[in-house]
């Protein structure tokens, strides 16, 4: 039996506190095999019916990366137009992806077919496939931070365009695009909080039904 002591628990708590969504990357490359190792860890995550619906696409081609960056710019410009006044000025000042600088690009999809896991747990909640993939990304996010590697999730993208750029089968659903590399800085507060876009809420707001 494996057990975890207080020192480990304290360090694990620090890991949760210091995990960040990273948008400001150093451009130096990651050691060979880093992304593959993070994918292996992600595959230890829980999944509905043990369906393991995560599909990972390492994007190493300059033209495809450029096309993703262009799509981000288009979507981000559209998003900016949905704000006005002070909020728009604030949005325009945010850095919302590290796509240009990050040495690693990883697109993540959910395979929606029923083959693995035989549909267990999905009959009334088919979206649990996507939830399972998000769980895998969260494992990877923490595992990366434990190695001093930063991960940034980019969702300001047009899924059909991502499918086209990466030539992805129709049965896969786009979940997220991850930038991976060494962070320029480390912080225990979300960047959006530092930028006064949104503040963190503590656990004081949950509801109890008796
Ligand atoms: C599903 C999903 C999608 C996105 C994000 C997260 C998640 C979970 N986040 C990161 C998000 O802004 C960040 O997690 C919060 O601001 C909290 O910061 P920390 O992750 O604690 O640093 C994010 N950040 C960003 O700059 N551009 C983006 O497109 C997205 N998209």
TrEMBL record:
Keywords assigned by UniProt, alphabetized: Cobalamin biosynthesis, Flavoprotein, FMN, NAD, NADP, Nucleotide-binding, Oxidoreductase
Enzyme Commission number: 1.13.11.79
Gene3D superfamilies: NADH Oxidase (3.40.109.10)
Positions of the Nitroreductase domain: 18-182
Gene Ontology biological-process annotations: cobalamin biosynthetic process
Catalytic activity, as annotated: FMNH2 + O2 = dialurate + 5,6-dimethylbenzimidazole + D-erythrose 4-phosphate + H(+)
Source organism, top-level taxon: Bacteria
Family matches, as InterPro entries: BluB, Nitroreductase, Nitroreductase-like, Nitroreductase/BluB
GO molecular function: 5,6-dimethylbenzimidazole synthase activity; nucleotide binding; oxidoreductase activity, acting on paired donors, with incorporation or reduction of molecular oxygen
Family: Belongs to the BluB family.
Binding partners and assembly: Homooctamer.
Full protein name: 5,6-dimethylbenzimidazole synthase
Upper classification of the organism: Bacteria, Pseudomonadati, Pseudomonadota, Alphaproteobacteria, Hyphomicrobiales
Gene: bluB
